[in-house]
Amino acid sequence: MKVKSILVTQPKPETEKSPYYDLAKKYSLKIDFRPFIHVEGIQAKDFRKDRINITEHTAIILTSRHAVDHFFRLCQEMRITNMEELKYFCISEATAFYLQKYITFRKRKIFYGKQNINDLLEVLKKHKKDKFLVPCSDIAKQEITDTLGAHGFEYTKATMYKTVCSDLSDLADVKYDMLVFFSPAGIASLYKNFPDFQQNTTLIAAFGQTTSQAVLEAGLRLDIQAPIPEAPSMTMSIENYLKKNK
């Protein structure tokens, strides 16, 4: 079938330089963006039930902007202010720079990797005596805590926000030729909003192994997968499909 419309289940890009816009222009596509899931913060009264004492930790590992936002939000709600000596280990440079929204860079000890926990391992090993706090969501991947545990670090996993399904009722009568997913939670949201969803000729694209597995477990047909060796990004995988089926 000819693809004319695509729904990407993520927020709209902040700039016009997104490869999705290049794809839309090159193949005359209508590409819309709509998050199927969103994040909600855990309230301080509920966080206290986990009996986690933030001030007992000497270092924190931050994996996303959400982790940064909700860590500082909870600290404010719980009136925690004496954290000047806390060390910050960020999963990426972008996450580290986002910290400037809350703290002054030159006054803090901040370290960052390229994109995953393994990039941080060498510098983490130099701080083996620290007690690490790992803010995360209720559906956080185990990779980070598994890695910390395997290397003997003392850490606390702290659920500070949760991922919930967005209300998509306004899309009930809107049809797209292709749906693009980036997490198993996106698939769950699809069926929560549309329990009777039938794929029929709709193409399904999935990024990541766990997302692809969720597509198959839902009984859907997986038409496009990324990353793959010849197409490391979602847009490249979609373009490869469009070329083959032109």
What does this structure look like?
There is one protein chain. With 246 residues, the chain is an alpha/beta fold. The strands form two sheets. Strands 3-8-7-4-5-6 form a six-stranded mixed sheet. Strands 2-1-9-10-11 form a five-stranded parallel sheet, sandwiched between helices. It has two domains: 5-36 and 166-244, Rossmann fold; 40-163, 3-Layer(aba) Sandwich (Rossmann fold), CATH 3.40.50. The model has no long low-confidence stretch (mean pLDDT 93). It has nine helices and eleven strands. Helix 7 (184-193) packs parallel to helix 8 (209-217).
SSE arrangement:
Layout: E1 5-8, H1 19-27, E2 30-33, E3 37-41, H2 44-47, E4 59-62, H3 65-77, E5 87-90, H4 93-98, E6 109-112, H5 117-125, E7 131-137, H6 143-150, E8 154-165, E9 178-181, H7 184-193, E10 203-207, H8 209-217, E11 224-226, H9 234-244
Parallel strand pairs: 1-2, 1-9, 4-5, 4-7, 5-6, 7-8, 9-10, 10-11
Antiparallel strand pairs: 3-8
Major sheet strand order: 3-8-7-4-5-6
Helix content: 25-40%
- The CATH topology of the largest domain is given as Rossmann fold
Query: Would you count the extended β strands for me?
Result: 11
In what range is the share of β-strand residues? 15-25%
Q: Report the top-level CATH class of the largest domain.
A: Alpha Beta
Which structural class should the secondary elements be placed in?
alpha/beta
Protein traits:
single chain; 246 residues; alpha/beta; Rossmann fold; 6-stranded mixed beta sheet; 5-stranded parallel beta sheet; 9 helices; elongated
